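Recap quiz, item 2
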Amino acid sequence: MVKLYNTLSRKKEEFVPLGKTVTMYSCGPTVYNYAHIGNMRAYIFMDSVRRALKYNGYKIKGVMNITDVGHLLSDGDEGEDKMAKASREQQKSVYEIAEMYTKAFMDDLNKLNIGKPEIIAKATEHIDDMLNYVVKLVDLGYGYETSDGIYFDIAKFPTYGKLSGLNLDNQIAGARVDVNDEKRHPADFALWKKAPKEHIMQWPSPWGMGYPGWHIECSAMSKKYLGDRFDIHTGGVDHIPVHHENEIAQSEALEGHQTVNYWMHGEFMQVDGGKMSKSLGNTYTVADLEAKGYSPMVFRYFCLNTHYRKTLNFTFAAMDAAKTAYTRLLSAINEHRNGKAETPKETLAKYEKDFTDAISDDINIPLALGVLWNMLKEPASKQIYELVQKFDTVFGLRLDTLPQEEKIEVPDEVAELADKRLEARKNKDWALSDALRDQIAALGYTVVDKKDGYDIKKN
Ligand code: AMP
Ligand code: ZN
């Protein structure tokens, strides 16, 4: 039995899907910039949920949106569109911006071995779906027009706030002074915005030219691909108080019933115990980590060691520890690759049960990693190696990698000597080749010759 923590009920619940295929929607990136490692933690979490369910025999139909319009600088309805701002600052069209960062995001997913959801849906390709949705909400009496857009009337939706458990009055008291005095209620939010002439992205609507609000995107696309009821909705904890409350309001107002059964949220990543922010210069990307000698798998390993509902503090000291541990892990697994021992069936079954119990208990990957480490202490056997690979369908840590294949930082000096040595070997100058090998060894490295080149290992 799989149990999942449901933000809506604030409890771990038994997971009972609606049908044979699990339907799952995940809030995706706004493609106005490179995703940082905090963002990537959110998608590693999504991936862990998908992988753990698949391990338990479920098929999955997953949808993830790509926000390429409508996400304003504040999660409320104020400020410039994030895409438009990036376009202005980077002197590229919004479509170029979207394409560039969508590609970068997909590359990061690949590097981190994050399985892509079955359907990736771009907001700009679903404008009609969103417009129809807004028109229906207005017809049902949930939307009203102001001079700058169409707003959702939360007074008509009495359970507003049920996901975050926030009392609306408190929420409003805490909110900053609202600049839009045409709204009936300060927490009313934009379904559709009217576009000023100079606005870059705009489409015709019954209310003139305009563009969709951010929240309607997820309601419209989840309905289109998953229907009016689906199993799981994931996102980051930052989505709970506004974005997901608004999604619930829109979807339930339209359908007249609950649309999502399990709401799951990944906790945030901090850097050095604080917030990640551009001004602090600590919004690292996967590429930044690679440049510092930490492979994407080391970052993934680092993330998997903390449960998704706990805050994870990123530090370079912790990354060093993750790097050492991941390298040790690959070595320990490699011992089993050609192990000669026979592991009793009951022993294997026990580890498999412990592993399954861990991942089925609200995706407890850290506990499952503990099971893995314990199992590796058994006498080296091929059966254990095979079971590790089975577990790795959930970890996604590429545990079949040979230890030396995991990239190491090679000083320029060593790389140059190794290149010279390759040249010497091509010229069949064995004496020079041997001398260079010794020089490399003196610097603490070993060159391992391969057919078309070499590998370098740290001694
Ligand atoms: P955005 O592209 O800003 O819409 O964010 C993409 C995803 O990253 C969302 O699911 C956010 O909840 C998540 N996210 C943003 N910042 C962090 C962080 N520091 N740690 C973890 N997740 C984050
Ligand atoms: Zn969303």
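Residues 316-337 form the longest helix (22 residues).
The mean pLDDT is 92.
End of item.
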